[in-house]
């Protein structure tokens, strides 16, 4: 694996200067250093320019006369000259920054270099790859560019961002990285095979709007608005209503953000893992390789119950630490969908729970209540602590995963594959001890899902702790290699889509992509 | 106070205790945290107004209550190295038990502040990929802390798993 097969320079980013001697401290380390697209600094920095412009505009707008005086007092030549100088500096800086930005794909890692004053070199091991995203902000879409983000399980800001590239190049690079991460050997001078994908989930815009209108927060907001309206009528002044305007703007922008972020959601399965695409303005195409989902949650807010709609979120190691705005939507596996779609989403992550009647168990997990053969729930003594949900709080053990059921008003089902367990814990407060119950928690990576179950009977908690520890160890030991293509093979997708949940596990047929 | 029940004391586990000097360490930090304000309040009460005796008394009661449970708390801390995982038990009133498989360990911290160094104790903390894993052991002898660190590191390496 030491020889780096240098892919033929498919003229990726910079058509010129490709073969020139590597300048500015790029060492000759046998790696094929490639450049980003020259427009990159513009796409990255346009926000700054817009902000400067807006600030200037705001200053002028608030004090038009003062601005006029300032402008008339200054020689217009100086003004234009200053602007030109500023533009020149920005241009030179951008050009230099672009010259310093390079990336290379080695046999085992992706390398990235950037920075003028503070130089940064970063490499991400391909076998530690947690997810690969292709992100296209609106401006980048205009230029037909995209940024490739490689998520590794580091701390904050640990993603390796390769961008911007032409969209076609980004897709080629993604295929190459995923193929290498999967352990598929790519022949020298040959493009990596693009894994075929089969669409499983699609969210219609109408359903998305419906789901956003059915949030409890919207109803609460409307109630407040009505209250303020009544107050306004009683007080004969519009002041109360005006006070709601900031809230209205904030809430509207929240809904708009959700809509824009989750618009056109498509979930597909491919040998590379789960493919998710979404976005109205900024589009995002995620690939989560097999075995990278740490935990999954299906949840149903109260107002979605009549429609039987569900939302599915996942914990993926790399996504936990990315910035707040992208975070909310990166970890969504299904923004909204009926039960069938939610189970399909679950199936994407866990094709096989190891249960013979998985559908029945999952139905019970989603809407059931009370103890049964499969589910162990809180004992009766917990009803003081949990009057509403004690009959529903419970767990079931499937051969491949642990199912945690909770919530009565907002129904939730958390599924954690046994081999993804990090550590386990039980806790007990004084009141719980008196009632003979304890809370169980399963620790997983950062994300929206926190697998835990409150108030189990002491004996059940002790048994679960001991057995889950054992199950997690067994599952871990029997887990395949990180190079997933060496272990599993493509499954008959088309057949699976019709009945995802009941479909047995992938049969190793031996042929990869 | 009753001994831990079966949940926090699984069969066949021999708990290792931490050093009694942790009691001293915690008492000293409690003394600094609560004793010092009490003294300041008392001085001010004598100098300014007797009303300040009230917060001083409240603080003192809290301090004494905390001090009275510290010994039991320290005694309740226990850890056990099993073949594949480390068990850590804590708490008197609010009990917790954490099971950390060695293969899940990402790194180990050994730390000792000035007070702990003066008393000759250190703490070891295990970190997994999950921030919710609270696996720290306070009040270890420095030798034991180093041994545990090396032991955990070598076992973690032997059973290394991805994520």
Automatic annotation (TrEMBL), chain A:
Residues 1-24 are annotated as: Disordered. The chain crosses the membrane at residues 41-57, 77-96, 217-239. InterPro entries: UCP026631, YdbS-like_PH. Pfam families: bPH_2 (PF03703). This is Putative membrane protein. Residues 98-176, 269-322, 390-466 form the YdbS-like PH domain. Residues 1-13 have a biased composition (Pro residues). The lineage of its organism: Bacteria, Bacillati, Actinomycetota, Actinomycetes, Micrococcales. Coiled coil: none annotated. It comes from the Bacteria. It comes from Flavimobilis marinus. Keywords: Membrane, Transmembrane, Transmembrane helix. Residues 14-23 have a biased composition (Low complexity).
UniProtKB/TrEMBL annotation, chain B:
Residues 76-152 form the YdbS-like PH domain. It comes from the Bacteria. The chain crosses the membrane at residues 27-47, 53-71. Keywords: Membrane, Transmembrane, Transmembrane helix. Signal peptide: none annotated. PANTHER family: TRANSMEMBRANE PROTEIN-RELATED, UPF0699 TRANSMEMBRANE PROTEIN YDBS. This is YdbS-like PH domain-containing protein.
């Amino acid at each position: 694996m030491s020889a780096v097969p240098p892919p033929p320079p498919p003229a990726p980013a910079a058509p010129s200067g490709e073969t020139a001697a590597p300048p500015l401290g790029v060492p000759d380390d046998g790696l094929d250093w490639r450049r980003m697209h020259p427009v990159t600094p513009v796409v990255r920095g346009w926000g700054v320019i817009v902000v400067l412009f807006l600030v200037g505009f705001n200053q002028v707008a608030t004090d038009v006369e003062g601005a006029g005086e300032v402008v008339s007092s200054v020689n217009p030549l100086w003004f234009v000259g200053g602007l030109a100088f500023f533009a020149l500096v920005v241009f030179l800086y951008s050009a230099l920054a672009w010259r310093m930005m390079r990336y290379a794909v080695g046999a085992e890692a992706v390398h990235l270099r950037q920075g003028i004053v503070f130089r940064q070199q970063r490499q991400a091991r391909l076998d530690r790859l947690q997810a690969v995203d292709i992100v296209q902000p609106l401006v980048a879409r205009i230029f037909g560019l995209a940024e490739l983000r490689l998520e590794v399980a580091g701390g904050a800001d640990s993603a390796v961002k390769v961008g911007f590239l032409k969209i076609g190049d980004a897709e080629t690079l993604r295929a190459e990285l995923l193929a290498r991460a999967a352990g598929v050997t790519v022949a020298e001078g040959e493009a990596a095979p693009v894994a075929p994908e089969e669409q499983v989930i699609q969210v219609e815009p109408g359903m998305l709007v419906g789901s956003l209108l059915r949030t409890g927060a919207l109803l609460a907001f409307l109630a407040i608005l009505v209250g303020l309206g009544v107050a306004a009528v009683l007080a004969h002044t519009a002041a109360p209503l005006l006070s709601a305007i900031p809230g209205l703007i904030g809430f509207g922008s929240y809904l708009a953000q959700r809509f824009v972020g989750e618009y056109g959601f498509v979930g597909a399965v491919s040998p590379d893992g789960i493919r998710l695409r979404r976005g109205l303005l900024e589009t995002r195409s995620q690939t989560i390789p097999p075995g990278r989902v740490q935990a999954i949650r299906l949840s149903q807010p109260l107002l979605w119950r009549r429609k039987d709609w569900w939302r599915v979120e996942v914990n993926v190691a790399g996504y936990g630490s990315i910035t707040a705005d992208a975070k909310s939507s990166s970890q969504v596996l299904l923004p909204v969908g009926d039960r069938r779609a939610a189970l399909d989403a679950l199936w994407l992550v866990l094709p096989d729970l190891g249960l013979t009647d998985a559908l029945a168990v999952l139905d019970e997990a989603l809407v059931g209540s009370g103890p049964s053969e499969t589910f162990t729930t809180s004992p009766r003594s917990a009803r003081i602590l949990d009057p509403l949900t004690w009959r529903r709080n419970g767990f079931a053990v499937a051969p491949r995963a642990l199912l945690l059921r909770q919530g009565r008003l907002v129904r939730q089902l958390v599924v954690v594959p046994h081999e993804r367990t990090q550590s386990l814990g039980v806790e007990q407060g004084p009141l719980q001890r008196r009632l003979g119950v304890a809370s169980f928690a399963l620790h997983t990576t950062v994300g929206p899902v926190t697998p835990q179950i409150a108030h189990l009977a002491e004996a059940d908690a002790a048994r679960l702790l001991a057995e889950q520890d054992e199950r997690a160890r067994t599952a871990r030991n029997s887990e395949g290699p990180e190079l997933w293509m060496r272990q599993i093979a493509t499954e008959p997708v088309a057949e699976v889509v019709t009945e995802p949940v009941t479909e047995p596990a992938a049969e190793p047929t031996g042929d990869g992509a | 106070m009753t001994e831990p029940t079966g949940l926090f004391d699984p069969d066949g586990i021999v708990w290792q205790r931490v050093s009694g000097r942790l009691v001293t360490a915690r008492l000293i930090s409690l003394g600094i945290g609560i004793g010092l304000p009490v003294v300041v309040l008392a001085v001010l009460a004598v100098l300014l107004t007797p009303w300040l005796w009230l917060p001083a008394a409240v603080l003192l009661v809290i301090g004494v209550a905390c001090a009275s449970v510290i010994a039991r708390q320290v005694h309740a801390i226990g850890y056990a190295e099993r073949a594949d995982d480390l068990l850590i038990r804590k708490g008197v009133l609010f009990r917790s038990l954490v099971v950390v498989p060695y293969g899940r360990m990402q790194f180990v911290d050994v730390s000792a502040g000035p007070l702990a160094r003066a008393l000759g104790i250190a703490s070891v903390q295990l970190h997994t990929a999950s921030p919710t894993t609270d696996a720290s052991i306070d009040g270890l002898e420095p030798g034991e802390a180093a041994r545990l660190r090396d032991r955990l590191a070598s076992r973690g390496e032997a059973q290394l798993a991805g994520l």
